[in-house]
Fold this protein.
Amino acid sequence: MVRSTASAPATVRTTWSAARARTRADAAPGERRSAAYLYILPALAFYGLFVLAPFGHSIALSFFDYDGISPGSWIGLANYKELLADSQTRGAFVHALVLVVFYAALPVAIGLLLAASLSRTRVRGLAWFRTVLFLPQIIPLVVVAVIWRYIYAPGEGPLNEALRATGLSGLARPWLGDFSWALPAVGIVGTWVQYGLCMVLFIAGVQKIPTSLYDAARVDGAGALNEFLAVTLPNLRNEIAVALTLTIIASLRNFDLIYLTTQGGPGNATSVPAFEVYNQAFEVGRVGFASAIGVTLALIIFAITIGVNRIAEARS
Amino acid sequence: MTGRGDRAVNYVILASFSLIALYPVAGIVLAAFQPPGSAAGGFSLPSELHLANFAEAWTQGHFASYLRSSLIVAVSVVFVSTLVSIMSGYAFGTMTFAGNKVLFYLFLLGLMVPLEGLVIPLYFDLRALSLTDTYWALILPQIGLSVAFGTFWMRAFFLATPRSLIEAAAIDGARRWSILWRVLVPFARPAVLTMMVLIFMWTWNEFLLALVMVSSESLRTAPLGLAFFQGQHVSDVTLLAAGAVIVALPVVVVYIFLQRHFIRGMISGSVVG
């Protein structure tokens, strides 16, 4: 997917379940037709030539020591061994994990807070709220980066100004240039981008829960917390799985924001795998090693997508 | 808890988070209208609407050229992806053939594989074909990535289409090809529009592909142009804000008119799954 805020996985989830429900997949597609291949051919050609083949080529490159110019040499798993051993690269994967908290855990928690509160009542003007909440999802990440670089600007940026105005001038700092604050600062941008998606998802989910379930819980004397745990949460299982899939992938595929706000700095404080792929291949000139990082990233994304959806299905 | 109390809490939560979502966006728009060169401190309301930043960004920043590149790429990608996705979705959704499962899973992989995992060889392969630094390098891979999603999207639609619709047309003697375009596609218009809107947004917003593939300034897409513009005008907030507004505007305008399609498409997994 070339999408900056990875969105297709929502469909992965759908189709994954559909394909696994064998009966449906077997029964559905009508008569036997060899013309089908002709219909599929153009799509398969584009997809095969420009996605599958390069991905396969990427796997192959990851076993080579290759600088992009002189002929490469086969080095087996050495790139992958280095990826595990090198503290800078390992650090990039750790940073990605930290960002998962900001991109996925926080937005899902915020979304659930809203869902818990919304479950009992109807809200007017929901369409308007939904439009605004979803807005950060559709804005180009380059623009998001411009906006937040300004907010975080050292000296007289809006955030520092606001802190000074409220007597917290001791906290003012060059956020994106601060060794301990740069990563959380980038993380907060991710939270800002993702929480609206979670909220919109969960609002849609909560409204599909039959009110009779809540009535029954109330008859049983359940309080707000029990009601949330016993009714809202289990019934949002699908939506939570979709939200986690989308947001975790977005946190791992985090090239645009890092490249445009910190370039992985200060030092390597905000370096992430998606950035290292570009950096190692096109700045450092270690194409084989960069490919190994890219393939590892892809494998992690496959594992998480399939894992999250397996768990959601197993519980249903 | 009373219903009224709950409702008030809902509105407070919804309103505060809507404000947090809106504030930075509104802030950059306001900054773009400040007098050129001012600090635009803290996203204040401009005393009057200055358009000079837009004029300067437009001429100095070559945004007309960037928007043209983005438009050429986005229109080509959306048009071709839509066409071939409808065809492949039709085959997967209405026909049985040997290997349909394997092919289906192959396309499924395309929904998960990140661009970061293939952009490096893509660059070297296209360079070997002398296609880097051309529109082809932006259009062809983007089509490849879009048809994986498009195939699934259209397959799901055709699977849900009443078989009677197809059979009735077949009885009338229509061939499969004309059933698809004369009967099913008009019926599928909302689903097709949702798909087009999403592919348009992903293509318009794409940054990494453009960064890797393109070096001529005349080929820069809007996001790539803005990134370079940011590098040149780091401290000129109002000018940068105007550039950011120009780049985001086409997507935001489409979003305002077709927001249901954006939202439905992006959260569809929960609705169908």
User: Anything to note?
Assistant: Chain A has 15 helices and two strands. Confidence is low (pLDDT under 50) at residues 1-10, 12-29 of chain A.
